[in-house]
Design brief:
Helix content is 42%, strand content 11%. The protein has helices at 4-18, 23-30, 72-83, 116-124, 152-176, 199-211, 242-252, 270-276, 303-314, 334-353, 357-365, 369-379, 384-394, 403-413; strands at 35-38, 90-95, 128-132, 180-184, 189-190, 221-226, 237-238, 255-259, 283-287, 321-325. The protein binds ligand L2XQQQDX and manganese (II) ion (MN).
Protein backbone atom coordinates (compact mmCIF):
# COMPACT_ATOMS: atom_id res chain seq x y z
CA UNK A 1 0.00 0.00 0.00
CA UNK A 2 1.29 3.45 -0.88
CA UNK A 3 1.80 5.54 2.23
CA UNK A 4 0.85 9.20 2.44
CA UNK A 5 4.56 10.03 2.54
CA UNK A 6 5.08 8.17 -0.76
CA UNK A 7 2.08 9.85 -2.33
CA UNK A 8 3.37 13.27 -1.26
CA UNK A 9 6.78 12.37 -2.67
CA UNK A 10 5.33 11.42 -6.06
CA UNK A 11 3.39 14.67 -6.23
CA UNK A 12 6.45 16.64 -5.16
CA UNK A 13 8.49 14.95 -7.89
CA UNK A 14 5.99 16.16 -10.47
CA UNK A 15 5.79 19.70 -9.09
CA UNK A 16 9.55 20.08 -9.09
CA UNK A 17 9.88 18.47 -12.51
CA UNK A 18 7.50 21.13 -13.82
CA UNK A 19 10.10 23.80 -12.93
CA UNK A 20 12.94 21.68 -14.28
CA UNK A 21 14.21 20.23 -11.01
CA UNK A 22 15.05 16.52 -10.61
CA UNK A 23 14.41 15.62 -6.97
CA UNK A 24 16.38 12.34 -7.10
CA UNK A 25 19.41 14.22 -8.39
CA UNK A 26 18.96 16.77 -5.57
CA UNK A 27 19.01 14.01 -2.95
CA UNK A 28 22.15 12.53 -4.49
CA UNK A 29 23.83 15.92 -4.27
CA UNK A 30 22.73 16.33 -0.66
CA UNK A 31 24.69 13.19 0.16
CA UNK A 32 27.85 14.98 -0.99
CA UNK A 33 27.54 17.59 1.75
CA UNK A 34 28.52 16.40 5.22
CA UNK A 35 27.75 18.71 8.11
CA UNK A 36 30.35 18.76 10.87
CA UNK A 37 28.66 18.68 14.25
CA UNK A 38 30.56 20.39 17.02
CA UNK A 39 31.25 18.26 20.10
CA UNK A 40 31.10 21.29 22.39
CA UNK A 41 27.30 21.64 22.22
CA UNK A 42 27.17 18.47 24.36
CA UNK A 43 28.87 19.86 27.46
CA UNK A 44 28.81 23.67 27.19
CA UNK A 45 32.43 23.83 25.94
CA UNK A 46 33.81 22.31 29.16
CA UNK A 47 35.95 19.47 27.76
CA UNK A 48 37.63 16.77 29.81
CA UNK A 49 40.99 18.33 30.52
CA UNK A 50 39.56 20.24 33.47
CA UNK A 51 35.75 19.92 33.43
CA UNK A 52 35.42 21.96 36.61
CA UNK A 53 37.36 24.88 35.11
CA UNK A 54 35.53 27.95 33.85
CA UNK A 55 35.00 28.73 30.19
CA UNK A 56 37.10 31.74 29.25
CA UNK A 57 38.15 33.55 26.09
CA UNK A 58 35.15 35.84 25.76
CA UNK A 59 32.65 33.11 24.91
CA UNK A 60 29.79 31.96 27.11
CA UNK A 61 27.30 29.09 27.28
CA UNK A 62 24.24 30.26 29.17
CA UNK A 63 21.65 28.01 30.82
CA UNK A 64 21.69 25.13 33.22
CA UNK A 65 19.64 22.39 31.58
CA UNK A 66 20.21 19.14 33.46
CA UNK A 67 22.09 16.16 32.07
CA UNK A 68 25.16 17.52 30.36
CA UNK A 69 27.86 15.02 29.39
CA UNK A 70 30.56 14.71 32.04
CA UNK A 71 33.04 12.50 30.25
CA UNK A 72 33.90 11.23 26.78
CA UNK A 73 31.81 8.09 27.21
CA UNK A 74 28.69 10.15 27.97
CA UNK A 75 29.43 12.64 25.21
CA UNK A 76 29.81 9.86 22.63
CA UNK A 77 26.60 8.24 23.82
CA UNK A 78 24.74 11.58 23.53
CA UNK A 79 26.22 12.16 20.10
CA UNK A 80 25.10 8.73 18.95
CA UNK A 81 21.57 9.56 19.97
CA UNK A 82 21.69 12.88 18.08
CA UNK A 83 23.37 11.36 15.01
CA UNK A 84 20.68 8.68 14.75
CA UNK A 85 18.05 11.41 14.32
CA UNK A 86 19.75 13.36 11.55
CA UNK A 87 19.72 12.04 7.97
CA UNK A 88 22.70 11.92 5.63
CA UNK A 89 26.46 12.38 6.00
CA UNK A 90 27.88 13.93 9.15
CA UNK A 91 31.26 14.62 10.69
CA UNK A 92 32.32 15.41 14.24
CA UNK A 93 34.33 18.50 15.13
CA UNK A 94 36.51 18.01 18.22
CA UNK A 95 38.40 20.50 20.36
CA UNK A 96 41.75 19.63 21.94
CA UNK A 97 40.23 19.85 25.45
CA UNK A 98 38.20 16.73 24.63
CA UNK A 99 41.28 14.53 24.92
CA UNK A 100 41.27 11.37 27.04
CA UNK A 101 44.12 10.54 29.38
CA UNK A 102 44.62 9.08 32.86
CA UNK A 103 47.26 11.72 33.56
CA UNK A 104 47.01 15.49 33.08
CA UNK A 105 48.44 16.42 29.68
CA UNK A 106 49.80 19.89 28.99
CA UNK A 107 48.26 21.45 25.89
CA UNK A 108 51.63 21.67 24.16
CA UNK A 109 52.10 17.93 24.73
CA UNK A 110 48.87 16.53 23.32
CA UNK A 111 49.36 13.53 21.05
CA UNK A 112 47.30 11.40 18.68
CA UNK A 113 47.12 8.66 21.32
CA UNK A 114 44.98 10.94 23.50
CA UNK A 115 42.31 10.84 20.80
CA UNK A 116 42.46 7.19 19.79
CA UNK A 117 39.09 6.39 21.37
CA UNK A 118 37.52 9.14 19.31
CA UNK A 119 39.07 7.72 16.17
CA UNK A 120 37.85 4.18 16.92
CA UNK A 121 34.41 5.57 17.63
CA UNK A 122 34.45 7.64 14.43
CA UNK A 123 35.37 4.53 12.44
CA UNK A 124 32.55 2.55 14.03
CA UNK A 125 30.09 5.35 13.29
CA UNK A 126 31.42 6.08 9.79
CA UNK A 127 32.26 9.69 10.61
CA UNK A 128 35.04 12.00 9.53
CA UNK A 129 36.67 14.06 12.29
CA UNK A 130 37.69 17.72 12.35
CA UNK A 131 39.83 19.39 14.99
CA UNK A 132 40.62 22.61 16.85
CA UNK A 133 43.48 23.65 19.11
CA UNK A 134 41.95 25.02 22.33
CA UNK A 135 43.48 28.43 23.03
CA UNK A 136 41.16 29.40 25.90
CA UNK A 137 40.06 28.22 29.38
CA UNK A 138 43.69 27.94 30.49
CA UNK A 139 45.93 29.81 32.98
CA UNK A 140 48.23 30.88 30.13
CA UNK A 141 45.34 32.55 28.29
CA UNK A 142 43.97 34.24 31.42
CA UNK A 143 45.22 37.71 30.53
CA UNK A 144 43.47 37.59 27.16
CA UNK A 145 46.40 36.74 24.86
CA UNK A 146 47.73 33.49 23.38
CA UNK A 147 49.44 33.32 19.97
CA UNK A 148 49.92 37.10 19.96
CA UNK A 149 51.17 37.28 23.54
CA UNK A 150 54.01 39.73 24.19
CA UNK A 151 55.73 37.19 26.43
CA UNK A 152 57.92 34.91 24.30
CA UNK A 153 57.47 31.83 26.50
CA UNK A 154 53.72 32.07 26.68
CA UNK A 155 53.48 32.70 22.94
CA UNK A 156 55.74 29.71 22.31
CA UNK A 157 53.52 27.52 24.50
CA UNK A 158 50.54 28.30 22.26
CA UNK A 159 52.58 27.87 19.08
CA UNK A 160 53.58 24.43 20.35
CA UNK A 161 49.95 23.66 21.15
CA UNK A 162 48.97 24.44 17.56
CA UNK A 163 51.87 22.36 16.24
CA UNK A 164 50.81 19.42 18.42
CA UNK A 165 47.18 19.90 17.33
CA UNK A 166 48.12 19.71 13.66
CA UNK A 167 49.66 16.29 14.30
CA UNK A 168 46.46 15.12 15.93
CA UNK A 169 44.45 16.49 13.03
CA UNK A 170 46.67 14.78 10.44
CA UNK A 171 46.29 11.52 12.39
CA UNK A 172 42.50 11.85 12.13
CA UNK A 173 42.74 12.35 8.39
CA UNK A 174 45.16 9.50 7.89
CA UNK A 175 43.13 7.07 10.01
CA UNK A 176 39.74 7.97 8.60
CA UNK A 177 40.63 8.56 4.95
CA UNK A 178 39.11 12.04 4.86
CA UNK A 179 40.99 15.26 5.63
CA UNK A 180 40.47 16.84 9.01
CA UNK A 181 39.85 20.57 8.87
CA UNK A 182 41.74 22.12 11.77
CA UNK A 183 40.47 25.54 12.74
CA UNK A 184 42.53 28.02 14.69
CA UNK A 185 40.51 30.45 16.74
CA UNK A 186 42.17 32.55 19.42
CA UNK A 187 40.46 34.95 21.83
CA UNK A 188 43.27 37.55 21.86
CA UNK A 189 42.07 41.09 22.35
CA UNK A 190 41.60 44.06 24.64
CA UNK A 191 38.65 45.35 26.61
CA UNK A 192 39.42 49.01 26.16
CA UNK A 193 41.21 51.52 23.96
CA UNK A 194 44.29 49.85 22.59
CA UNK A 195 47.33 51.97 21.92
CA UNK A 196 49.38 49.47 19.95
CA UNK A 197 47.04 47.58 17.64
CA UNK A 198 49.88 46.64 15.34
CA UNK A 199 52.41 44.76 17.46
CA UNK A 200 50.05 41.94 18.53
CA UNK A 201 49.09 41.45 14.87
CA UNK A 202 52.73 41.33 13.84
CA UNK A 203 53.35 38.73 16.52
CA UNK A 204 50.29 36.76 15.43
CA UNK A 205 51.43 36.55 11.79
CA UNK A 206 54.84 35.27 12.88
CA UNK A 207 53.33 32.84 15.40
CA UNK A 208 50.91 31.39 12.86
CA UNK A 209 53.69 31.04 10.30
CA UNK A 210 55.82 29.14 12.78
CA UNK A 211 52.93 27.01 14.04
CA UNK A 212 52.04 25.95 10.48
CA UNK A 213 55.58 25.67 9.15
CA UNK A 214 55.59 21.87 8.95
CA UNK A 215 54.19 20.66 5.65
CA UNK A 216 51.46 18.09 6.25
CA UNK A 217 49.68 15.90 3.72
CA UNK A 218 46.65 17.86 2.45
CA UNK A 219 44.82 14.55 2.06
CA UNK A 220 44.95 14.31 5.85
CA UNK A 221 44.92 17.84 7.18
CA UNK A 222 43.64 21.31 6.20
CA UNK A 223 44.56 24.48 8.11
CA UNK A 224 41.82 27.05 8.70
CA UNK A 225 41.83 30.39 10.55
CA UNK A 226 38.78 32.05 12.13
CA UNK A 227 38.25 35.80 12.44
CA UNK A 228 36.15 37.57 15.01
CA UNK A 229 34.81 41.05 15.69
CA UNK A 230 34.79 41.06 19.48
CA UNK A 231 34.51 38.87 22.55
CA UNK A 232 33.12 39.44 26.03
CA UNK A 233 35.83 41.41 27.79
CA UNK A 234 37.58 42.07 24.47
CA UNK A 235 35.12 44.57 23.05
CA UNK A 236 37.54 47.18 21.76
CA UNK A 237 40.19 45.21 19.93
CA UNK A 238 40.45 41.71 18.49
CA UNK A 239 43.85 40.78 17.14
CA UNK A 240 42.46 38.18 14.71
CA UNK A 241 39.96 40.45 13.00
CA UNK A 242 38.29 39.80 9.65
CA UNK A 243 40.82 41.91 7.73
CA UNK A 244 43.68 40.21 9.54
CA UNK A 245 42.62 36.69 8.66
CA UNK A 246 41.36 37.51 5.19
CA UNK A 247 44.86 38.75 4.48
CA UNK A 248 46.48 35.84 6.25
CA UNK A 249 44.42 33.12 4.55
CA UNK A 250 44.84 34.79 1.15
CA UNK A 251 48.59 35.23 1.41
CA UNK A 252 49.21 31.78 2.94
CA UNK A 253 46.45 30.00 1.01
CA UNK A 254 44.93 28.42 4.09
CA UNK A 255 41.21 27.88 4.50
CA UNK A 256 39.28 30.83 5.95
CA UNK A 257 36.66 30.22 8.61
CA UNK A 258 33.60 32.47 8.53
CA UNK A 259 31.50 32.33 11.69
CA UNK A 260 27.99 33.74 11.30
CA UNK A 261 28.27 35.49 14.67
CA UNK A 262 31.61 37.16 14.15
CA UNK A 263 30.66 40.26 12.19
CA UNK A 264 28.78 43.52 12.69
CA UNK A 265 25.08 42.79 13.33
CA UNK A 266 23.88 43.69 9.82
CA UNK A 267 26.71 41.86 8.03
CA UNK A 268 26.01 38.34 6.81
CA UNK A 269 28.51 35.63 5.95
CA UNK A 270 26.37 34.46 3.03
CA UNK A 271 27.49 37.56 1.15
CA UNK A 272 31.15 36.94 1.96
CA UNK A 273 31.37 33.47 0.44
CA UNK A 274 31.54 34.52 -3.22
CA UNK A 275 34.20 37.14 -2.49
CA UNK A 276 36.35 34.96 -0.26
CA UNK A 277 36.26 32.07 -2.72
CA UNK A 278 38.06 34.25 -5.28
CA UNK A 279 41.10 34.43 -3.02
CA UNK A 280 41.25 31.44 -0.68
CA UNK A 281 41.30 27.78 -1.66
CA UNK A 282 38.68 26.70 0.86
CA UNK A 283 36.19 28.02 3.34
CA UNK A 284 35.14 26.59 6.66
CA UNK A 285 31.75 27.81 7.81
CA UNK A 286 30.71 28.07 11.43
CA UNK A 287 26.98 28.24 10.95
CA UNK A 288 25.51 29.80 14.05
CA UNK A 289 22.79 32.28 15.05
CA UNK A 290 23.76 35.56 16.62
CA UNK A 291 20.84 37.12 18.49
CA UNK A 292 21.81 40.78 19.00
CA UNK A 293 25.40 39.66 19.60
CA UNK A 294 27.60 36.58 19.07
CA UNK A 295 25.23 34.57 21.22
CA UNK A 296 25.63 31.18 19.48
CA UNK A 297 21.93 30.29 19.48
CA UNK A 298 20.78 27.08 17.79
CA UNK A 299 20.67 27.34 13.99
CA UNK A 300 17.18 27.92 12.56
CA UNK A 301 15.84 27.38 9.07
CA UNK A 302 15.91 31.15 8.67
CA UNK A 303 16.80 33.48 5.83
CA UNK A 304 20.52 33.60 6.55
CA UNK A 305 20.92 29.82 6.94
CA UNK A 306 19.09 29.49 3.63
CA UNK A 307 21.25 32.15 2.00
CA UNK A 308 24.43 30.38 3.16
CA UNK A 309 23.21 27.07 1.75
CA UNK A 310 22.12 28.70 -1.50
CA UNK A 311 25.55 30.25 -2.01
CA UNK A 312 27.23 26.86 -1.64
CA UNK A 313 24.88 25.22 -4.13
CA UNK A 314 24.50 28.06 -6.64
CA UNK A 315 28.27 28.34 -7.05
CA UNK A 316 28.91 24.59 -6.96
CA UNK A 317 31.25 24.89 -3.96
CA UNK A 318 30.75 21.30 -2.81
CA UNK A 319 34.46 20.52 -2.72
CA UNK A 320 35.70 23.87 -1.42
CA UNK A 321 33.34 24.68 1.44
CA UNK A 322 33.35 22.74 4.70
CA UNK A 323 30.13 23.15 6.64
CA UNK A 324 30.56 23.27 10.40
CA UNK A 325 28.18 24.33 13.16
CA UNK A 326 29.02 26.50 16.12
CA UNK A 327 26.35 27.03 18.74
CA UNK A 328 26.13 26.13 22.39
CA UNK A 329 22.83 26.48 24.13
CA UNK A 330 22.75 25.14 27.68
CA UNK A 331 19.16 26.27 28.31
CA UNK A 332 17.51 23.42 26.37
CA UNK A 333 18.12 19.70 25.98
CA UNK A 334 21.59 19.63 24.44
CA UNK A 335 20.88 16.66 22.20
CA UNK A 336 17.75 18.35 20.87
CA UNK A 337 19.87 21.43 20.16
CA UNK A 338 22.21 19.37 17.96
CA UNK A 339 19.30 17.73 16.16
CA UNK A 340 17.38 20.96 15.54
CA UNK A 341 20.43 22.87 14.30
CA UNK A 342 21.85 20.12 12.11
CA UNK A 343 18.51 19.14 10.57
CA UNK A 344 17.92 22.81 9.79
CA UNK A 345 21.29 23.13 8.05
CA UNK A 346 20.47 20.07 5.97
CA UNK A 347 16.98 21.29 5.17
CA UNK A 348 18.46 24.56 3.92
CA UNK A 349 20.90 22.64 1.71
CA UNK A 350 18.08 20.53 0.31
CA UNK A 351 15.92 23.58 -0.42
CA UNK A 352 18.87 25.16 -2.21
CA UNK A 353 19.31 22.00 -4.28
CA UNK A 354 15.64 22.13 -5.26
CA UNK A 355 15.93 25.65 -6.62
CA UNK A 356 15.58 26.14 -10.41
CA UNK A 357 18.83 28.09 -10.35
CA UNK A 358 19.56 28.09 -14.07
CA UNK A 359 16.15 29.55 -14.89
CA UNK A 360 16.63 32.23 -12.24
CA UNK A 361 20.14 33.01 -13.46
CA UNK A 362 18.83 33.45 -17.00
CA UNK A 363 16.09 35.81 -15.82
CA UNK A 364 18.72 37.84 -13.99
CA UNK A 365 20.99 37.96 -17.04
CA UNK A 366 18.10 39.17 -19.14
CA UNK A 367 17.29 41.85 -16.59
CA UNK A 368 13.88 40.35 -15.82
CA UNK A 369 13.99 41.07 -12.13
CA UNK A 370 10.21 40.88 -11.83
CA UNK A 371 10.19 37.24 -12.94
CA UNK A 372 13.23 36.50 -10.78
CA UNK A 373 11.46 37.74 -7.65
CA UNK A 374 8.18 36.05 -8.60
CA UNK A 375 9.85 32.66 -9.12
CA UNK A 376 12.04 32.96 -6.04
CA UNK A 377 8.99 33.60 -3.91
CA UNK A 378 6.76 30.97 -5.53
CA UNK A 379 9.35 28.23 -5.21
CA UNK A 380 9.43 28.75 -1.44
CA UNK A 381 6.04 27.07 -1.27
CA UNK A 382 6.82 24.15 -3.56
CA UNK A 383 6.53 20.89 -1.58
CA UNK A 384 10.16 20.58 -0.50
CA UNK A 385 9.06 19.07 2.83
CA UNK A 386 7.84 15.93 1.02
CA UNK A 387 11.32 15.51 -0.44
CA UNK A 388 12.89 16.04 2.98
CA UNK A 389 10.60 13.43 4.50
CA UNK A 390 11.54 10.89 1.83
CA UNK A 391 15.22 11.62 2.51
CA UNK A 392 14.67 11.06 6.24
CA UNK A 393 12.79 7.82 5.60
CA UNK A 394 15.47 6.49 3.26
CA UNK A 395 18.06 7.26 5.93
CA UNK A 396 16.08 5.55 8.70
CA UNK A 397 15.61 8.78 10.62
CA UNK A 398 12.35 10.27 11.89
CA UNK A 399 10.61 12.29 9.19
CA UNK A 400 9.14 14.93 11.47
CA UNK A 401 9.05 16.13 15.08
CA UNK A 402 8.77 12.51 16.22
CA UNK A 403 12.52 12.61 16.71
CA UNK A 404 11.77 14.50 19.91
CA UNK A 405 10.20 11.34 21.42
CA UNK A 406 13.53 9.55 21.09
CA UNK A 407 15.29 12.47 22.78
CA UNK A 408 12.71 12.52 25.58
CA UNK A 409 13.13 8.78 26.20
CA UNK A 410 16.87 9.19 26.37
CA UNK A 411 16.43 12.13 28.71
CA UNK A 412 14.27 10.04 31.02
CA UNK A 413 16.46 6.93 30.90
CA UNK A 414 19.95 8.41 30.71
CA UNK A 415 20.29 12.18 31.16
CA UNK A 416 18.12 12.36 34.28
CA UNK A 417 20.45 9.89 36.00
CA UNK A 418 23.33 12.33 35.75
CA UNK A 419 23.76 14.58 38.77
C1 LIG B 1 34.60 26.71 20.69
C2 LIG B 1 34.81 27.29 19.32
O1 LIG B 1 36.04 27.03 18.82
C3 LIG B 1 34.51 28.76 19.32
O2 LIG B 1 33.12 28.86 19.38
C4 LIG B 1 35.01 29.56 18.14
O3 LIG B 1 34.83 28.89 16.94
C5 LIG B 1 34.27 30.83 18.17
O4 LIG B 1 33.41 31.02 17.36
C6 LIG B 1 34.54 31.80 19.23
O5 LIG B 1 33.63 32.83 19.25
MN1 LIG C 1 33.21 29.82 15.57
Amino acid sequence: MTTSLEKAWELAKQRFAAVGVDVEAALQQLDRLPVSMHCWQGDDVAGFENPEGTLSGGIQATGNYPGKARNAHELRSDLERALSLIPGPKRLNLHAIYLESDQPVARDKIKPEHFKNWVEWAKANKLGLDFNPSCFSHPLSADGFTLSHANDEIRQFWIDHVKASRKVSAYFGEQLGTPSVMNIWIPDGMKDITVDRLAPRQRLVAALDEAMSEKLNPQHHIDAVESKLFGIGAESYTVGSNEFYFGYATSRQTALCLDAGHFHPTEVISDKISSAMLYVPRLLLHVSRPVRWDSDHVVLLDDETQAIASEIIRHDLFDRVHIGLDFFDASINRIAAWVIGTRNMKKALLRALLEPTETLRQMELEGDYTARLALLEEQKSLPWAAVWEMYCQRNDTPVDAQWLDAVRHYEKDVLSQRS
